[in-house]
């Protein structure tokens, strides 16, 4: 498998990474809508322990979700040292010699840890300027840790610590989202968020000509909730009112966005929004996405509380395993995958 990170530098963009003009993104500095900023929500513990202030935070999250499908959180309880530790260990992994990464290279999506390039949705056409680690990260067990790489030395311990703290943050957010929607506080607990937590560590090396490449295709996430560490290098864009906006880094923040399952269980109130990744020529960019998943046999459909005469059910019930298969068939296309589950007349 050819990894972009196996080459020290790229003097030019190989033809297989060059997109046709109609599929290219604007250069980062000229990105349309780059003046629009995502809401930033403060999760300071003191605020969450006060019922009145907690209600305001929950309302703020739902308001941001309804308008953008994305928001950023600060004072989230994940230690800065823990974030830095895992990001540094991941960067060291990508910097390792090719032969040390080779045993982990695989397109087998069932593996608990693997490294690959581009995306499985390029369908053998133009490739995306991206290497990535895809792994299971929670719940942590000795067996799971044994699948993680032993090098660099800090990788396993830093991943376990990072995963535990981010998982706790995700549960706090799900509780606040439920409260903000007027649902029972435990609505998202259990099978709906109890699947194996997945993680994508995306690595985008400096690109000689960002104007002809993409780091990652426009897509919506298939799961329930994403908690993303973007780092201090911009590159993520989200759809907003028909155009792309740049998600500018906020020091110490996590970016939160909703997956398809959130859209379906809230009957369209909190939508999953398309996003993509751009490349740049100056520095490498790395993002760490933690994906909160339902259990494979979880029955999913609009919550009864979110359905009314004015807002009838937009989606049929299904088992999450069925959604995963449909997502792959639709090659991550937002409209195509939702069409499988949409009730007619909506």
UniProtKB/TrEMBL annotation:
Cofactor(s) demanded: Fe cation
Residues annotated as transmembrane: none
GO molecular function, one term: metal ion binding
UniProt xrefs under Gene3D superfamilies: B-lactam Antibiotic, Isopenicillin N Synthase, Chain
Record's keyword terms, sorted: Iron, Metal-binding, Oxidoreductase
Domain Fe2OG dioxygenase: 195-294
InterPro entries cross-referenced by the UniProt entry: DIOX_N, IPNS-like_FE2OG_OXY, IPNS-like_sf, Oxoglu/Fe-dep_dioxygenase_dom, Plant_2OG-oxidoreductases
Family label: Belongs to the iron/ascorbate-dependent oxidoreductase family.
The name this protein goes by in its record: Fe2OG dioxygenase domain-containing protein
Organism: Triticum aestivum (Wheat)
